[in-house]
Specification:
Blueprint: H1 4-21, E1 61-64, E2 67-70, E3 79-87, E4 108-111, E5 118-124, E6 130-137, E7 147-150, H2 151-156, E8 164-173, E9 185-186, E10 198-205, H3 208-220, E11 226-231, E12 238-243, H4 249-261, E13 268-271
Parallel strand pairs: 3-7, 4-6
Antiparallel strand pairs: 1-2, 3-8, 4-7, 5-6, 5-8, 8-9, 10-12, 10-13, 11-12
């Protein structure tokens, strides 16, 4: 498992990223010295291959800072949206959770629950760029963070300066539901550089009155960007309560904190 010092530093990275978004001087884990690297020098995407599970870092449960985390039995069908952060020079050369040496120039990532190793496609929802990385580490152990990318991956997604970005993570899986053959499967393959509008969805209801009650609750606590979207693509129609559009991670974090304050913990990032 990765060294405990890393977990503490990630909290600092997240804090400094928020300060940066407020217009202060950005400070977070560093990449190479100025002029030491550019996108043209970085490697291509990780090449998915069927690998055995690592002897290290796979649980089925593990503890960090008093919290217990469960490792998924499979990465098949995994897709989730959330916030990506990155880590670089501070941990370059240290051991990852599966006892490999972290290389900030490699296309790798840390994730709390995917089996090690796993391959995932990460798409930056703000600019449509996507990369494929190999998950070989655990983290980020910071509230409201989904994946921690290597410096190289973050550079290719154009999120080094901001420190974080809203992303979609989709597993490229060799696991299979019987009787299909073991071929790499990615559940979706979005077009590169497709920019979408981002929303937080806080409920989908079959009855419009239930959606209106949820909407009223959001408005009562000052969430003025809430609205009800009638989804006619389903039968019967669903009434989806959404907030947005969401401009950046700072705004997303603030909305999630507001929702948690009124007891809403189940949220989803959705795009159009």
């Amino acid at each position: 498992m990765a060294k405990p010092e890393r977990f503490k530093s990630l909290h600092l990275i997240a804090l400094f990223s928020i300060l940066s978004a407020c217009g202060l001087q950005p400070v977070y884990d560093s990449g190479p010295p100025p002029g030491g690297s550019n996108v043209a020098d970085l490697p291509g995407d990780a090449i998915p291959r069927d690998e055995p599970r690592s002897r290290y870092g796979n649980g089925p449960y593990y503890k960090v800072n008093g919290e217990t985390y469960e490792v998924l039995d499979t990465n098949f069908g995994y897709r989730e949206r959330g916030v990506a952060s990155w880590y670089g020079n501070k941990f370059h050369g240290h051991l990852t959770s599966n006892q490999e040496t972290y290389n900030m120039y490699a296309m790798t990532a840390a994730h709390k629950s995917l089996p090690l190793p796993s391959y995932v496609q990460v798409r930056n929802l703000r600019n449509g760029r996507s990369v494929i990385v190999r998950v070989n580490d655990r983290g980020p152990f910071v509230d409201n963070r989904l994946i921690d990318l290597s410096y190289a991956a973050a550079m290719k997604l154009d999120m080094v300066t901001t420190g974080t970005s809203l992303v979609e993570v989709t597993a490229i899986s060799f696991d299979k539901p019987s009787p299909q053959p073991a071929e790499p499967v990615i559940t979706t393959k979005p077009a590169r550089h497709r920019v979408e509008t981002i929303f937080v969805q806080v409920g989908a209801f079959g009855e419009p009155e239930n959606a209106r009650r949820r909407y009223s609750l959001l408005r009562d606590v000052g969430i003025d960007k809430a609205f009800v979207h009638k989804d006619k693509s389903t039968s019967p129609a669903l009434y989806r309560v959404r907030i947005g559009p969401i401009a950046n991670v700072l705004q997303y974090d603030f909305i999630v904190e507001q929702l948690q304050g009124i007891g809403i913990s189940e949220t989803h990032l959705v795009t159009e």
